[in-house]
Hints:
CATH architecture: Alpha-Beta Complex
Structural class: alpha+beta
Number of domains: 1
CATH superfamily: 4'-phosphopantetheinyl transferase domain
Distance between the termini: 24 Å
Radius of gyration: 13 Å
Number of strands: 5
Strand content: 25-35%
Mean pLDDT: 92
CATH class: Alpha Beta
Number of helices: 5
Shape: globular
Order of helices and strands: EHHHHEEHEE
Strand order of the largest sheet: 1-5-4
Largest sheet: 3 strands, antiparallel
Amino acid sequence: MDVLDRDELKRLLTRGWFLRYCYAPEEIEQARALQGVRRLEYLAGRFAAKEAVLKALGRGLLQGIAPRNIRVERAADGSPSVELRGEAARVAARQTVRVSITHKESVVAAAALLVRPE
C-alpha cells in the first residue's frame, strides 16, 4: 500500500533525474500527451502503484529495483495492470502482480498484491 499527496510529487518532478529514474519510457510518453492536473494525477497514480509494488516485493525505493522497471499500464477494461522488467521481473519470477489505484482530491493511494501460482 502507498499513499501520496500530488503536491509531494509535484516537487519531485522538478528534479530532472526523477522522471527518468521512476517512469518507463512509455509512461513518460503517455504523460506528455496529458495536460495540467490530469498529467500530475497520472504520474502520481503510477508512482504510488510502483511504491506499492516495491513494498510487495520486499524492497524500498532505492533498494535494487528501479521504479522505471515497473510499468503501470491500462488494461483493455480500464483497470491498471503491471508489467515487470529487469530486476523487478527476476525478483517476482512466476508471480503475478495485481494493483489498484484510487484518487481523491490531491491524495492518491495504491495497493499491490503478489499472487503466487498454486
